[in-house]
């Protein structure tokens, strides 16, 4: 939290009157302390103080040079807006419109790392760590938070997670409510669409029920609803005044191969399924003056949920950008120069502790003194 642009070990040690670079290096990179109990205490304390309305799932990238830093690979790097050499981490944050804080982290290991055990061994990656897609890492973080007796109010995430049918099913199976962004290209049937049972021809296996028309992009379904169905909603006060747009809530039946397979499994198997795809709630934004809708979110909340609440939760994802900006620019989240798995997780835990301290001070700035 001290002044200074670089928050790597050497410059931090040099800013302290009794700074010991070797001791700090040992503490962050080699010391065997377990970061999980520290993150658990931070998560418990901040959840108690913030009383979050949503948990935000996202990932963040760290541009890197070389190939030795744990998890580094050429992959999409949000920090530079293109594919580049970087590390990527998945995080879960507790958030309201006025405060937020990371609850837990996990470093993403590309398959090229887990396919090279010797490379993982040199970076100190635990033997039990395997390659997992980012949405699987996110579900794992949510499971860990559940083991800590923390309960997600509503899970929100950008379209990188919202388009993943397995991620949405994983949240549903865990009993978690969600409002996840979509791109608008995902396909679905209208709520009133009904499957048709073709007549059996007498040969081969029985014919399965099917919808008479092909599914369409949710952007098309939203536009067909008509601008008159959209109402104006204000979700928060911004720097330039009230943030307002027009929204509508629709019921749709998500389609596609993964949605179909999940529905068949839930219905008792391919031959026993009645052909009906489950409905989900679609939140659509159509700003005044725009020719077509511009934003889409899918949710397992009932369509009767007040639209103002759904909009506020969907839009609350902006708080994670505040967190990343403070964690990176103010506290050096992306300044770690070590190469090991343990060192990286120690570093992000200490940065999280610093941000949690600042959050607590902002919420309660007056110093308590003895009576």
Question: Could you give the topology of this structure?
Answer:
Layout: H1 9-15, H2 21-30, H3 35-50, E1 54-63, E2 73-77, E3 82-95, E4 100-107, H4 111-114, H5 117-122, H6 134-147, E5 155-157, H7 159-162, H8 165-173, E6 178-182, E7 187-190, E8 195-196, E9 210-211, E10 216-217, H9 218-224, E11 231-238, E12 241-254, H10 257-266, E13 280-285, E14 295-299, H11 307-315, H12 318-330, H13 341-363
Parallel strand pairs: 1-5, 5-6
Antiparallel strand pairs: 1-3, 2-3, 3-4, 6-14, 7-10, 7-12, 8-9, 11-12, 12-13, 13-14
Tell me what the structure shows.
This protein is of the alpha+beta class and 371 residues long. Among the domains are: 48-157 and 319-363, no CATH class; 178-193 and 214-299, no CATH class. Helices cover 36% and strands 24% of the residues. It is built from 13 helices and 14 strands. Strands 1, 2, 3, 4, 5, 6, 7, 10, 11, 12, 13 and 14 form a twelve-stranded mixed sheet that branches. A hairpin with a 2-residue loop joins strand 11 and strand 12 (241-254). Helix 3 runs parallel beside helix 13 (341-363). The longest helix has 23 residues, at 341-363. The two termini are 29 Å apart. The model has no long low-confidence stretch (mean pLDDT 93). InterPro entries: IS701-like (IPR039365), IS701-like_DDE_dom (IPR038721), RNaseH-like_sf (IPR012337). It comes from Streptomyces caelestis. Residues 1-241 form the Transposase IS701-like DDE domain. This is SRSO17 transposase.
């Amino acid at each position: 939290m001290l002044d200074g642009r670089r928050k790597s070990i050497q410059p931090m040690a040099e800013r302290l009157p009794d700074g010991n670079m070797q001791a700090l290096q040992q503490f962050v990179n080699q010391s065997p302390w377990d970061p999980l109990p520290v993150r658990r205490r931070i998560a418990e304390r901040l959840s108690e103080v913030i009383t979050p309305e949503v948990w935000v799932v996202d990932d963040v990238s760290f541009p890197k040079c070389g190939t030795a830093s744990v998890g580094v690979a050429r992959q999409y790097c949000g920090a530079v807006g293109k594919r580049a050499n970087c590390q990527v981490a998945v995080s879960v944050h507790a958030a309201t419109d006025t405060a937020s804080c990371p609850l837990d982290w996990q470093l993403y290991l590309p398959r090229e790392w887990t396919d090279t055990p010797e490379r993982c061994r040199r970076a100190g990656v635990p033997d039990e760590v395997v390659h997992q897609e980012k949405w699987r890492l996110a579900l794992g973080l949510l499971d860990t938070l559940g083991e800590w007796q923390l309960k997600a109010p509503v899970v929100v995430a950008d379209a990188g997670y919202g388009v993943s049918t397995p991620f949405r099913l994983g949240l549903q199976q865990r009993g978690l409510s969600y409002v996840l962004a979509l791109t608008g290209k995902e396909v679905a049937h209208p709520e009133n669409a009904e499957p048709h049972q073709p007549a059996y021809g007498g040969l081969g296996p029985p014919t399965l029920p099917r919808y008479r028309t092909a599914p369409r992009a949710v952007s098309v379904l939203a536009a067909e609803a008509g601008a008159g169905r959209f109402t104006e909603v204000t979700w928060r006060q911004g720097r330039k005044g009230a943030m307002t747009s027009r929204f509508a809530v629709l019921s749709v039946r998500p389609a596609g191969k993964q949605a179909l397979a999940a529905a068949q499994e839930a219905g008792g198997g391919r031959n026993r399924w009645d052909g009906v795809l489950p409905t989900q709630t679609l939140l659509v934004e159509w700003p005044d003056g725009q020719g077509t809708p511009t934003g889409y979110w899918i949710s397992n909340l009932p369509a009767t949920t007040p639209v103002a609440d759904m909009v506020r939760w969907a839009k609350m994802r902006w708080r994670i950008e505040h967190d990343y900006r403070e964690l990176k620019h103010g506290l050096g989240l992306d300044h770690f120069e070590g190469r090991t798995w343990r060192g990286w997780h120690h570093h992000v835990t200490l940065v999280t502790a610093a941000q949690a301290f600042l959050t607590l001070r902002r919420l309660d700035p007056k110093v308590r003194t003895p009576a």
